């Protein structure tokens, strides 16, 4: 891998880079913008190595500064809108510490990070793919809906569509999707994610968990959103990974994301 560039964020975010050692093709390497890097980076690197794509795809992982567990409040701030309804506390208990401000993070991504990366890295600006999981999967769908940035593909792995009373579903039904007609979209989920949402409070357990959270129905929501996108004319694939839960599904979701990027590279 080439020496990572210095790309200042001007924020509390931390970046990780994978830049292939190989000579770039005409136009540059496809570029993956990998959200939630503290949890998605390792499975993405594994997927690149296993597929033989480590020499053909560049990756910028976005996480946060600081050691130790990820501050869940930062995830809520970056990946969700300001809440219109009550949402459950962060996984593991405690308080969020932030409300949603995904517009600010989206602005950082498309107005600052994307232009700088295209200037500094041997990448193809026409083949950039946004990849997120859980709350950042929700953010990927939000970014797709807004049309911000220059992404050719979007991967929403186990997106938290249930968040804020599934507000994004209502917005998606009334949205104008014409701007996204050329994008490729992948929505994935594990079959074991159906009954209980991933961000449940630590105090919630047992048979009452789903009812306490308003029955998130992760699989149903992901499938419904993918079908909605297809009904609006978008190129959207839905993939269900049997027997996988919210954490165990990550290697499979990242492998599917690499397949989407390789398809873009070949197009």
What are the salient characteristics of this protein?
single chain, 267 residues, alpha/beta, seven-stranded mixed beta sheet, globular
Secondary structure layout plus pairing:
Layout: E1 13-18, E2 29-34, H1 37-51, E3 58-64, H2 72-79, H3 102-120, E4 123-133, H4 135-146, E5 153-157, H5 163-174, E6 184-190, H6 209-212, H7 218-231, E7 235-241, H8 250-266
Parallel strand pairs: 2-3, 2-4, 4-5, 5-6, 6-7
Antiparallel strand pairs: 1-3
Helix pairs in contact: 1-8, 2-3, 2-4
Notes on the structure:
This protein has 267 residues and is an alpha/beta fold. Helices cover 38% and strands 18% of the residues. The protein has eight helices and seven strands, in the order ββαβααβαβαβααβα. Strands 1-3-2-4-5-6-7 form a seven-stranded mixed beta sheet, sandwiched between helices. It starts with 12 loop residues before the first strand and ends with a helix. The relative contact order is 0.16.
